[in-house]
Amino acid sequence: MSKNENFLTIKENGTNEIIIKKSRFIASIARSNTVEEAMAFIKKISKKYHDANHNTYAYTIGLNDDQVKASDNGEPSGTAGIPELRALQLMKLKNVTVVVTRYFGGIKLGAGGLIRAYSNSVTQAAEKIGVIKRGLQQELIFSVAYNRFDEVNHYLKEKQIFIADTNYATDVQIKVFLDEENQKQFEDDLTNLLAGKVKFTLGEKRYNEIPVTQNNFHEQ
Predict the structure, then answer these.
(1) What percent of the chain has pLDDT over 90?
(2) Is the dihedral of CA 62, 67, 68, 73 positive or negative?
(3) Could you count the other beta carbons within 10 Å of the beta carbon of residue 44?
(4) How far is 210 from 161, CA to CA, in rounded Å?
(5) How far apart (Å, rounded) are the C-alpha atoms in residues 118 and 137?
(6) Contact 155/189 with Cβ under 8 angstroms?
(7) Is-contact 55 69, C-beta < 8 A?
(8) pLDDT single digits (tens) 86-137
(9) What Rg do the C-alpha atoms of the chain give, in angstroms?
(10) pLDDT score, position 213
């Protein structure tokens, strides 16, 4: 599996509001796999906040930002939609649509202030909702003796590898999912840790969603 089959996106749809100089900025963000889904979400949010001064938006569809669009919806050119799109791209988020609704509070922010406000609205919304890595992974099944389980469990936590299933029989059977590029290193590490007393069986391949924390975000 090549690394470009993994991508970052938001954990779930959600909203976040910030207030800057009495103006309300409500960022509504959603997963979108097609332009049609993106436009339907934009229409829905714009209808919900039909009384707002502006419903600006941006979306990026495809693992290589194949289809992108941004709209200032009446704000000065380049102060809303493009900063929102850049915020999504800086966070490396894919297949995401964001609509930032503004209720004007009476104090003008200026071009620079608007750019920062709309960009920060997107970033803070994504951070609040959470980011996940979605990628194709290989299931790996192996067994360890009961008296070695704690060591293995410590290793898995240290490497941030999640146990998919555990079966307690004669030995402890463990199932994990790994990016294929990490599989050999994992097998080598476990073989060394357990002095060769481990065998691996390949299971299915499937797309999984792995939480991305502040600690490992930069590694993605």
Answers:
(1) 82
(2) negative
(3) 12
(4) 9
(5) 35
(6) yes
(7) no
(8) 999 999 999 999 999 999 999 999 999 999 999 999 999 999 999 999 888 9
(9) 22
(10) 65
Q: Specify the pairing of strand 14-20 against strand 67-71.
A: unpaired
Give CA–CA dist 109/106, Å, rounded.
Answer: 10
The tokens describing 60, both together, are 């990026």
Task: Give the pLDDT confidence score for residue 6 in this predicted structure.
Answer: 82
For residue 25, what are its two tokens?
Answer: 């900025």
Residue type, 178: L
> Residue for token digits 């297949």?
95
Triad 119, 125, 128: Cα angle to 5°: 140
Spell out a b/e string for 7-30, using b for 16 or more CB atoms within 10 Å of the CB, else e: bbbbeeeeebeeebeebbbbbbbb
Q: pLDDT tens across 136-174, in order?
A: 899 999 999 999 999 999 999 998 888 999 999 999 999
Q: Which pLDDT belongs to residue 215?
A: 41
**Using H for helix, E for strand and C for coil, what is the string for the chain?**
CCHHHCEEEECCCEEEEEEECCEEEEEEEEECCCHHHHHHHHHHHHHHCCCCCEEEEEEEECCCCCEEEEECCCCCCCCCHHHHHHHHHHCCECCEEEEEEEECCCCCCHHHHHHHHHHHHHHHHHHHHCEEEEEEEEEEEEEECHHHHHHHHHHHHHCCCCEEEEEECCCEEEEEEECHHHHHHHHHHHHHHCCCCCCEEEEEEEEEEEEECCCCHHHC
